[in-house]
User: Fold this.
Amino acid sequence: MQLIVSELVTNSVTALEETARHMAPQVPAVRFRLSADPGPDGAMVTVEVWDQLPSPPRPRSPVATEEGGRGLLLVGAVAKEWGWYWPDHRVGPGVEWRPAEPKLITESTALFGKVTWATVTNGHGRGGPLPTPG
Assistant:
């Protein structure tokens, strides 16, 4: 789970750093939340990371000598599933994030940023059980 949180937050921060100079006087922001949901297959933990950039995350295929570009590949390898959506309304303090119906996604909605998410079920992703801390 730590890897997923780290990679999704890092992707948002890195992307915002590249565009922050064009956002003045607005201060760039990244928010994340963790939620657990008991289900028939065990508890599912979802990580959601919101940032102000409307563009979808794009997995890359970096060459061996590149330092970055593997975050979403790592997330895809250890998460049960991952994806992204545009919030259906502005995200702010006390505002619930909800996935938008495709028909409700408009250009103005996309201006409110995006949420990238990943899930792990019962401590397991595609890579098997997560190691026990300690």
